[in-house]
Design goal:
Elements: E1 2-6, H1 10-21, E2 25-29, H2 33-42, E3 44-48, E4 52-54, E5 58-59, E6 70-73, H3 80-86, E7 96-99, H4 106-111, E8 119-124, E9 129-132, E10 135-138, E11 144-148, H5 154-166, E12 171-173, H6 178-198, H7 202-207, H8 209-228, H9 235-248, H10 255-262, H11 273-282, H12 288-304
Bound molecules: nicotinamide-adenine-dinucleotide.
Length: 307
């Protein structure tokens, strides 16, 4: 199977490596010159659970010409339209396009470039970190839930789940994946944005009484807006999930902290708390916590990165 990884940063390298090792024809796509050069010259260096070098092809999106069986999207959320624009040549009438980005609303963006029957949405708890150009750190295990956006795509979606699982990525075909996507977005919307704003670890946020109040208010906004969107969300269940996740990740800085505070990079806030604000407005639902948090993150981006 010919698979392009559209965005081969941390997660793209994990998925690309595992699918390549499972015998698929994998081509990494990226625009980061130092990363491309490093992988071309020295292979992809992997450390963490295993130390190795994997020889895997990488190119710029505009160099990819062959129509793919599968494209896995792994840019950051705000980079998705540019990537989809750049890979039009490889998306044929039967190319399956899988989105595992964090956040909400990506299906509307992808639908502008890909027929709905070929779009597969999903959510993953795999993780990965880039250590530098051409070097990815992979530790621990994970899983993936995916579902074709349109019932006509279901058989293909199940085939793709099988391809991912044969690469030890533990994928299941989920008959109702959208609530899981919202649940993960809610984890990100409570932990990532607040820890980036407060410059703290997840455990420190949850140990603060006021921090915890903010977390509960954000969960409530996600649930009410999600329900208005027709997504079956249960506030108690999501609260349990967020609390559970906060315990297992207590000693970590979430990825938005790493992006914004540690590396001064723009964040995916508009697709997390910002998406809930936007959707809330469509339904006349007030979302004061998500509104303020989105503005504060943008203000912090202005302060740390500049306009
Ligand atoms: P990343 O920044 O490491 O990788 C994104 C890559 O896409 C970069 O290498 C960038 O150069 C490339 N890119 C962006 N726009 C491009 C374009 N137009 N053309 C070519 N290349 C382009 O990000 P990541 O950590 O791998 O995260 C990807 C997505 O997965 C995000 O939505 C993130 O929230 C989600 N996610 C990440 C993790 C994690 O542990 N890193 C876990 C779960 C989900």
């Amino acid at each position: 199977m010919l698979i392009y990884i559209a965005g081969s940063g941390a997660m793209g390298c994990r998925f690309g490596k595992q699918l390549h090792e499972a015998g698929n024809d994998v081509i990494l796509l990226d625009k980061w010159e130092d990363h491309i050069q490093a992988i071309r010259e020295n292979g992809l260096k992997v450390s963490g659970d295993e130390e190795k070098v994997v020889n895997i092809p990488i190119m710029r999106p505009e160099e990819a010409k062959e129509q793919a069986d599968l494209v896995i999207l792994f840019t950051k959320a705000m980079q998705l339209p540019d990537m989809l624009e750049a890979i039009q040549d490889v998306i044929g009438p039967d190319t399956q396009v899988l989105c595992l980005l964090n956040g909400l609303g990506h299906q509307e963006v992808i639908s502008k470039y890909v027929p709905e029957k070929n779009i597969i949405m999903g959510v993953t708890v795999w993780t990965a970190q880039l250590q530098g150009p051409g070097h990815v750190y992979l530790a621990s295990t994970g899983s993936i839930n995916i579902q074709s956006l349109n019932p006509d795509g279901q058989d293909k979606g199940k085939e793709i789940a099988d391809v991912l699982s044969k690469a030890n990525l533990n994928a299941i075909y989920d008959e109702d994946v959208i609530p899981s996507i919202w649940r993960k977005a809610c984890v990100n919307g409570t932990m990532n944005s607040n820890c980036a704003l407060l410059d703290c670890k997840i455990g420190e946020l949850f140990a603060s009484e006021d921090g915890l109040t903010i977390v509960h208010e954000i969960i409530h906004e996600f649930v009410v807006v999600g329900q208005a969107e027709g997504v079956a969300l249960n506030e108690e269940e999501i609260t349990d999930y967020v609390m559970q996740t906060s315990k297992s990740a207590a000693h970590h800085y979430p990825s938005m902290h790493q992006d914004l505070v540690q590396n001064n990079r723009y964040t995916e806030i508009d697709f997390i708390n910002g998406a809930v604000s936007r959707l809330g407005r469509n339904h006349d639902i007030a979302t004061p916590y998500c509104d303020l948090i989105t503005q504060l993150i943008h203000a912090k981006e202005d302060v740390l990165i500049g306009k």
